Amino acid sequence: MYDIVIGLEIHVEMKTKTKLFCGCSTEFGAAPNTQVCPVCLGLPGTLPQVNKEAISLAIRAGGVFGSTIQPISQFSRKNYMYPDLPKAYQITQYQEPICIGGGIEVMREGERVMIRLERIHMEEDPGKLMHPEYEFFSLADYNRSGIPLIEIVTKPDLRSPEEAVEFLKALRTQLEFAGISDCRMEQGSLRCDANISLKEPGTEILGTRVEIKNINSFREVQKALEKEVKRQSDLLRFGEGEKIVQETRKWDTGKGRTISMRSKEDAEDYRFFDDPDLPVIQLTQGQIEAAQADLPTETAIQRRERFQMSYGLSEEEATKLTEDAVLARLMDQAGEGHSDPRKVATWILTEGLCLYRSGEGFRVDASTLLVLLETVESGGLSHSAAKQVFESLWKIGGTVDDTIQVLGLQQNSDQDELTDLIAKIVAENPQAIAEIRAGNGKAFGFLMGAVMKETKGTANPKIAKALIEAELKR
Amino acid sequence: MELVERLFSEILKKDRSIGAFLSLDIEGALKQREEAERCEGALAGVPLGIKDNIAVKGQPLTCASKMLMGHRASYDATVIERLRKSGAWFVGKTNMDEFAMGGSTENSAFQQTKNPVDLDYVPGGSSGGSAAAVAAGMVPGALGSDTGGSIRQPAAYCGIVGLKPTYGRVSRYGLVAFASSFDQIGPMTQTVEECERLFSVIAGADEKDPTCDGASYQMQKRLADFSMLRVGVVSGIEKMGIAPSILKSYQKLVEEFQDAGAIVEEIDFSLPSEAVSVYYVLSSAEASSNLGRFDGIRYGLKGTGASVEEEMKSSRSAGFGLEVKRRVLFGTHVLSAGYQDQVYKKAQRYRATLKNRMEELFHSHDLFLMPTTPTPAFRLGDHSDDPMGMYLEDAFTVPASLTGIPALSIPYGKSDAGLPIGMQVMAAHGQEEKIFEVVKGLETKNGVFGRRDQDV
Asked: Which of A261, A291, A321 delimits the end of a domain?
């Protein structure tokens, strides 16, 4: 076996209202080329103007990860010609990035390990090309051209594909918590390239490094890295002279493998130089402090441990909740207001997560969730009815009481009505009665289910249970 | 209405032999002029020529390149906005060396502009069209752009006044970039006072150009008392291989300052021949990056090819002229890995040193005098196959470009062949006030530059 050495380069869209060098909107999903102007189209004669909000957010990112903010940093030009890059250079930071150093902790064999950051720098996103099938042309959309990004570069400190994913999850939560990015991978607002090499255990000499580009989700990160580890170790063990070459490979999601893009020899010379259109960025201590005001102080690991400790959650539950800033924030808000925070967590992770995964945020707020849970506990709503209410609150909104009214889900505690119904069900299911009497507990559940079905989940379960038991004794 | 018609018929008549304009906005002229007349600004009703690398909304913006044939600006440059507000209006776009690269306007892809003083001679460049239009009296003023001398040299060749402002005092927004750390837009006029007035309208910080943070400009009083004025002159200039007529003019100007009472001191500013090389390294490097965007994908000349790369190659091969290709290749080379440290970074260090030297010089002097060019205008075609000869014409103009200081070229005397000669008055960073105050002071004593007997 070989030791795995991984370094990541993560591009994150910052959530500014406008682009990095012009006033165009950064809103996702607009019709192609509707959020463009002479500046982000690179029309002849135009010049960039730096977005101060973007600089603030980059400083915040440095604060979150404990980086040093450089009092003087600079924008450079990375020159290459491609149709998605309207100026034929990308404005980025090269020799003087805004943040240097810092790190993010991950767990390795039960110990906390610091994954060090090399740097964080700002840059603009290029446009986007689309290649319609069966056509002899491509289409260019420049809405994305000039969207502000930070690129976070780690040192080669990661030791496994799983660790890389854990790192990315921690990074994402911290960026979301600090309000720097929404980190929507499906919208491409968090993208990841990985550098990976293998080395003999015990040596310090790194093997030949391969860069993998175009990885679009956490699951893909793990898959792509695992595939690359296998490819490299196969080459080392059975390569018969064939060596790992330093190159850039592209992850093909569909085929589930990496494909060589270019070797080191073909690497483009970007002719970096300081952008003469943009004066150096000078930051005072005051500006840095202002940008880093009310930064969350808790790290991802600390938050997970707190969730386990103060809410009595399992490691798995705490992990799931803290991997996502929206869920974590909701848990903190609702957990504080409930005597048994575990119940809150369970609800969020079962009913909540199911709907949440369909996108668009968590659409029921903490106080509404608490009211719903209280109603269930006080016997005013059965669990299955509560699910229906929750779904309606998610989709339509409104208050818990109104929703119960509208859906006609008020708990039915009417003894007479339930007694009649249960008598009827018992009469129709002699087999179940016989089984219960023979000691089969499941059959009791079957009867309860039948009652719930008949009452559309509104029957007060306590009363129903008591009535069934009474009916059986007769 | 009549005025406008008369102006255009005059321009059309004169421009047949001179070729200063690439396009005229006859259609928009009446509307522009009507709006201008309603305005009470400093330039109410004044018609101007605009170099064809400055964006005027709706008008062609070709940089005299096939690459941008048919391209029109979709927005106004900041200087154009400011001029409009002051009541000026725009007659048309003037010819230039392609993408402002050259010193004779012979590199225009479209037409040859001739020197109105003698049609066998070049008007200089790259702002040759603007210089010729003003010199021929087609317009009272024009805008040019100066990267290494492109306003001052044609002003000198055509016998008019031209200012290269302090870098950062006039917005570059809307100026098609050649070398971003050098480029400045500046006024070209027949007289110093008109030049100052035009400058006062366009100067001042602009948020659309982050490198433009200079002060706005107020018209200055004429200097009356020269006794405290310290003027630097180049020592040993007679050994610098300049034309005898230029040397004579220079000495005469120095005397004029002495007679006015100024303290004149020789400065050891042995014109370093490296300055020209350094200028070409740095400006070409920036140009190679700035001109990358002309790939035929979004606008401009579109080539053909089986792949995107082939298509871009085809567009650029057909769109750019020889001089532009030469500089883009050279600039790409000096920025590439392995050469950047040896060539580009070394040139940058030289530039920094020169800036320091210049700053020191102005600690003890108010102004520094230099000829604008080493020789007067040359004949059309004389340097066409001799780029190095053309580059050396920049020896006196690049120091101000490399150091970002302001420099005014004034017409001063004539060559034996009767061609105009230009002298340069330079001041410290941001000190255009000093230049105009002094030069206008001299005019009170001895007559307006460009209108004196010696100049006619």
From this structure: A291
